[in-house]
Amino acid sequence: MEKRRHIAIFTTACLPWLTGTAVNPLFRAAYLAKDGDRKVTLVVPWLSLKHQKLVYPSNTTFSSHSEQEAYVRQWLEERTAFFSGFNICFYPAKFAVDKRSILPVGDISEVIPDEEADIAILEEPEHLTWFHHGKRWKTKFCLVVGIVHTNYLEYVKREKNGRMKAFMLKHLNSWVVGIYCHKVIRLSAATQDYPNSIICNVHGVNPKFLDIGKKKLEEQKRGSQAFSKGAYYIGKMLWSKGYKELLTLLHDHQKELAGLEVDLYGSGEDYDQVQKAAKELQLVVRVNPGRDHADPVFHDYKVFLNPSTTDVLCTTTAEALAMGKIVVCANHPSNDFFKQFPNCRTYDNRNEFVEATHRALTEQPAELTDAQRYELSWEAATERFLRIAELDQASVSKPGKSTADNLASTSLSLRRNMEDASAYVHYVASGFEASRRAFGAIPGSLQPDEEQCKELGLAIYAQK
User: Fold this and answer.
1) What CATH number was assigned to the domain covering residues 207-376?
2) Three-state SS across the chain?
3) For the domain with range 6-203+419-456, which CATH number is right: 3.40.50, 1.10.1060, 3.30.70, 2.60.40?
4) Among 186, 268, 356, 363, which is least packed, fewest CB within 10 Å?
5) Domain 6-203+419-456 shares a fold with domain 207-376
6) Average pLDDT value for residue range 430-456
7) Share above pLDDT 70 across residues of the chain, in percent, rounded to a whole number
8) Residue-level pLDDT at 420
9) Domain coordinates of the chain in residue numbers?
């Protein structure tokens, strides 16, 4: 009997932080392990208490990784209604306040023993490898698949000297992703291009949203008023997450949109500024703290307004469509996947935004077919992932020597030698504190500190 493949999914965030790289890899692990054909391990960051307080909402903290694992599993099972036998492992990490991101500490590939290393999925491969110092991912694992979640270039462009920073980051991303990943999946064309990459949405929606959509469809068929509320938006409350664009559109078209009421939901460092800007509008725009999108408070809204162009593939847009709502969003590569659904209304300019919003508020959402609902599901997303990553094939093995002609063999060998040399340069550069700091690494992140070693039982890393 053939040995089951082992898939290790490394990601850059963990619940209770409700961000895409915490939620989507968790569902991916659950659905890849659901049928029992594969051994799956989800590898997530562990933060010490002081860093947990900076990241996790509602003052939620954990005294041990086993406590956090229990929280994660309960959250998942409440939404999937099935038990999935995948493993959860933690790697040491720290929260970078300036980047609003969790960054790995030490060689996180060592979480998976060498004898179990088979297939690695790097959720946000550039993020996980910027400061990687340790075993080369391609050498340790038979296959390394990167899934690009975030349009880092778009965020960086909004900073001071943004264009220069974006230029440098683009080349850094291409470098690290190229030397550490065999294949790259881009969720949409909104991300930068990479060698050996393919565009495919390999994310689905929480089954709860599809259930909500089915209930709303039943209400529509009975002739009931399924959607009694108007327009809303939900997202992390940062200006870069679409709030600036939305409030600008509302401000510039207050006369045309007279009578429109919009509810905003989110938590983040720009909450107070967003609230202040909303109060200056003549329109009624209510700003509310963030909450789970599946909360009953959202069920009766009919229109989801999302003008963001920084997302790669917006999870909340997919969730709104699954709930049967009309979505008004920008005609942007990040929304290409959603255009196949009749309730997705895109616009190219401000006037079209006003027109699309008016139409959405006066019309009733179209009924989703079973095929359309399935396309939004995690079952379909998992099928797409297995096909694109070619993991649905009988086996995956480390690349062997080419049997082509001598010229092709020589060319392949030269490319490998150049890649090996490039990887060695990165290994050396990432091994010095000065060079790490120069590229933006967190101070002291080359190895876990004593506190992290004790919390994770990483005696091997313990520093004297």
Assistant:
1) 3.40.50.2000
2) CCCCCEEEEECCCCCCCCCHHHHHHHHHHHHHHCCCCCEEEEEEEECCHHHHHHHCHHHCCCCCHHHHHHHHHHHHHHHHCCCCCCEEEEEEEEEECCCCEEEECCCHHHHCCHHHCCEEEEECHHHHHCCCCCCCHHHHCCEEEEEECCCHHHHHHCCCCHHHHHHHHHHHHHHHHHHHCCEEEECCCCCCCCCCEEECCCCCECHHHHHHHHHHHHHHHCCCCCCCEEEEEECCCCHHHCHHHHHHHHHHCCCCCCCCEEEEECCCCCHHHHHHHHHCCCCEEEEECCCCCCCHHHCCEEEEEECCCCCCCCHHHHHHHHCCCEEEEECCHHHHHHHHCCCEEEECCHHHHHHHHHHHHHCCCCCCCHHHHHHHEHHHHHHHHHHHCCCCCCCCCCCCCCCCCHHHHHHHHHHHHHHHHHHHHHHHHCCCHHHHHHCCCCCCCCCCCHHHHHHHCCHHHCCC
3) 3.40.50
4) 363
5) yes
6) 88
7) 93
8) 86
9) 6-203+419-456, 207-376
Token pair, residue 245, equals 């664009």
- At 18 the pLDDT is 85
So what's the pLDDT on residue 392?
A: 64
In tens, the pLDDT along 449-464 reads: 888 888 888 865 444 3
End-to-end C-alpha distance for the chain, whole angstroms: 46
**In whole angstroms, what is the distance from residue 107 CA to residue 114 CA?**
13
How far apart are alpha carbons 384 and 375 in whole angstroms? 10
Would you call 183 exposed, middle or buried from its count of C-beta atoms within 10 A (0-12, 13-18, 19+)? middle
Query: What is the pTM assigned to this prediction?
Result: 0.89
Return all residues near 175 (Cβ < 8 A) that are at least 6 apart.
422, 426
CA-CA distance, 42 to 26, in Å (whole number)?
Answer: 7
Q: What percent of the chain has pLDDT over 90?
A: 70
Task: Tell me the mean pLDDT in the region 356-373.
Answer: 95
